[in-house]
């Protein structure tokens, strides 16, 4: 019984080492589209969105949607670590134990397919919002651009609580102080809502959740929810 209980606890809360899919839902004119954050990392560094609403007929390519929670720590600890940037690689690479992610902490997302980090880029080529920045991948973890703070989207959760699988939350880039956001891109497709959407870092909020792929090295017994 104790083994089962521990397994449930590991699966219930997000921890460093877990591989997850970041997913969200976009609603426009009564149409609901479920999407996952994706990236190739080769050729284009920009992140894109993989639709999952029609899983049965059009299976999503989840191989490019996996992100590992590489590290989490308090914002204060992050600032201290960045102030001593020469120790950054050592600090982030250390700590083999799986730490539970808490609301209010900064988290580092490692893209499984490319081995690069989810970041807020300096460019702004994919969005019509002049105050928004592109979201993509960077090779190293130097600076604040690849760190994101996680905040509860519901009053049922508060800062300092453990982040649970299935929670809706908000991600804020530490460097730009903008939200990880879904919006219409510069190219609009009348036939497909999902093809017209992009992900960027903007001042508008978007709610995200995670579906686990692997929990600290073990394959999670779950799947991407199908669209309703």
Descriptive notes:
It contains four helices and 13 strands. It is mainly β. Strand 12 and strand 13 form a beta hairpin. The protein is globular and about 45 Å long. The N terminus is likely disordered.
Q: Write down how many β-strands occur, each being a DSSP E stretch of 2 or more residues.
A: 13
DSSP helix count?
A: 4
Over the alpha carbons, how many angstroms does the gyration radius reach?
17 Å
Q: How many angstroms separate the termini? A: 35 Å
Kindly report the average pLDDT value: 83
Shape: globular
Summarize the main sheet: 9 strands, antiparallel
Helix/strand class: mainly beta
Write the element-wise H/E pattern from the N-terminal end onward: HEEEEHHEEEEEEHEEE
- As a percent range, the share of strand residues is 25-35%
Query: Spans with pLDDT under 50 lasting ≥5 residues?
Result: 1-6, 89-95
Report the helical percentage: 10-25%
In short:
This protein is mainly beta.
How are the secondary structure elements laid out?
Elements: H1 2-12, E1 19-28, E2 31-38, E3 48-51, E4 66-73, H2 75-83, H3 88-93, E5 106-111, E6 117-120, E7 133-138, E8 147-152, E9 169-173, E10 179-184, H4 193-196, E11 197-202, E12 209-215, E13 218-219
Antiparallel strand pairs: 1-2, 1-4, 1-12, 2-3, 4-5, 5-8, 6-7, 7-11, 8-9, 10-11, 12-13
